[in-house]
Amino acid sequence: MVHSPRPSHSERYSMSKRPASVRKDFLVFGQPDIGDAEINEVTDSLRRNWLGTGPKVAQFERDFAAYKGVSAAVAVNSCTAGLHLALLAAGVGPGDEVITTPLTFCATANVIVHAGATPVIADVDPATLNIDPEAIERKLTKRTKALLPVHFAGRACDMDAIMAIANDRKLKVIEDCAHAVETEYKGKKAGTFGDFSAFSFYATKNMTTGEGGMVFAREPEGLARVRTLSLHGLSKDAWKRFSDSGYQHYAVTEAGYKYNMMDIQAALGLHQLKRVETMWKRREVIWKAFMKRLADLPLELPAPVEPKTRHAYHLFTPLIDEKRAGMKRDDVLNGLTAHKIGCGVHYVALTDHPYYQKTFGWKQADAPVATDIGRRTLSLPNMPRMTDADIDDVVNALHEVMGQKVKLPRAS
C-alpha cells in the first residue's frame, strides 16, 4: 500500500473549514491617524485659495527642521524625489556607483538609475536587517561615489561604521530616512549624519502629508541646489513670485524637476508633526505587545532595540520560520487576510525583481541574507490609531493561522 505524505499544517489549514474571522471589519494596514486639526488646516488652505507651494510649506519646513535640530530643510512631493535631488546635488552621475541595501523599496535603487549612476547592493545584517558595513567594504570600487543606507523599519543603521568608510574613501552619504522620522543613533537624530538625507510622509508613514517628503543637507549650498532643482530650476519659489510683496521675475538656472510640495499637503504635516511623539509612544506600546504575545509562535521576531538608539517603530516585521511553522510566508498572509487583518511585505529583496536581474544581473548569491529575509518577512499592522482590541485581533489571528487554536483573552 502506498501512503500519501502527511499534509503540512498549511495544507491542513486550507483543507479544513476555516473558523469565522476574528473581526467583523477589515483592519487596514498602514491607515493614517488624521484628526480635526489636520482637516481644519486643509480646509483653511482651500478657503484661502492657496493650494500650491506657499506659506504653509515654508512653515512646515521650519517646523520639521526644528524638530530634527537642523538649520533648514526643503519640502518635496515624495521621499523618492528627495533622494533623486540629493544624489544630483551630491554630484552623482554617469560612470559612478552608489552602494545601497537590497532590502528596501525599489525607489531607493531607482533614483540611482535616474541620476545616471549604477546601483550596487551590499547585503544586510541578519539581526538588524540594515545594510552591513562589512558588506559595503567588499563592494567598494574605484567608481564608488556614494553610500545610500536605509534606516530599515525605523531602526538606525550603524552610522559610526558607515561614516568611517565614507570619510576614509571621501564618499558622499545620502541617508534614506523614509522610515526614520523619530529615529536616533547614539543621541543624534537620523538624517543628520550624511551629506544629504530624505524623509517620507507617504500615507502609511509615521507622519503623513498624503504624499510628500523632506530633504536635509549638511552644506547650505547643497540644500540651495535641491530647492532650485525641486521647482523646474527656477530662481524663485512660486509663492514668492505671487505673494503680496509684488510679482518677482524668475530665471531658469538649470533644467529642474516638478518635485515641490503643496500647501494642502503641508497643512496635514504641520499638525502631524505636533503629534508625532504621541503617535510614536503608541507605536512603542503596540511593538512591545507583539514582542511579548507572539513569542510562542514559530516566528523570528525583530531584534531588541540597540542601546543608545531610538527605534521609530515604523514597521513590525517578523520572519516566518517555515520549517517550524509548516507553512510559507504567503500562507500566513492569506490566512491573516481571511481573518480581516491587513498586512504587508517589507520587502521582497531587489535581487528577486526581474528588472534588476535583467539590467544588473543581480541574483540571490549577491545578497543571500536579504533574499532569504525577503521571502519570509511579514509586516503586521502597528498604526497608532489601533485599539487594544485591534492588537488582540492581530495576535489571535496569527495564533489561529499558525496552529494554536485556543483563542487568547483580550487585553481589555
Describe this structure in words.
The protein is an alpha/beta fold. It folds into two domains: 9-33 and 276-401, Aspartate Aminotransferase, domain 1, CATH 3.90.1150.10; 36-274, Type I PLP-dependent aspartate aminotransferase-like (Major domain) (Aspartate Aminotransferase, domain 2, 3-Layer(aba) Sandwich), CATH 3.40.640.10. Helices cover 39% and strands 10% of the residues. It has 16 helices and twelve strands. The protein has helices at residues 9-15, 36-48, 55-68, 79-89, 106-114, 133-139, 159-169, 220-230, 238-241, 263-274, 276-293, 322-325, 329-338, 354-360, 368-376, 388-401, and strands at residues 74-76, 97-100, 118-121, 144-148, 172-177, 184-185, 188-189, 196-200, 213-217, 299-300, 309-310, 319-320. It has a seven-stranded mixed sheet with strand order 1-9-8-5-4-2-3, sandwiched between helices. β4, α7 and β5 (172-177) form a beta-alpha-beta unit. α4 packs across α8 (220-230). The longest helix has 18 residues, at 276-293.
Task: Explain the layout of strands and helices.
Layout: H1 9-15, H2 36-48, H3 55-68, E1 74-76, H4 79-89, E2 97-100, H5 106-114, E3 118-121, H6 133-139, E4 144-148, H7 159-169, E5 172-177, E6 184-185, E7 188-189, E8 196-200, E9 213-217, H8 220-230, H9 238-241, H10 263-274, H11 276-293, E10 299-300, E11 309-310, E12 319-320, H12 322-325, H13 329-338, H14 354-360, H15 368-376, H16 388-401
Helix pairs in contact: 2-10, 3-10, 4-5, 4-8
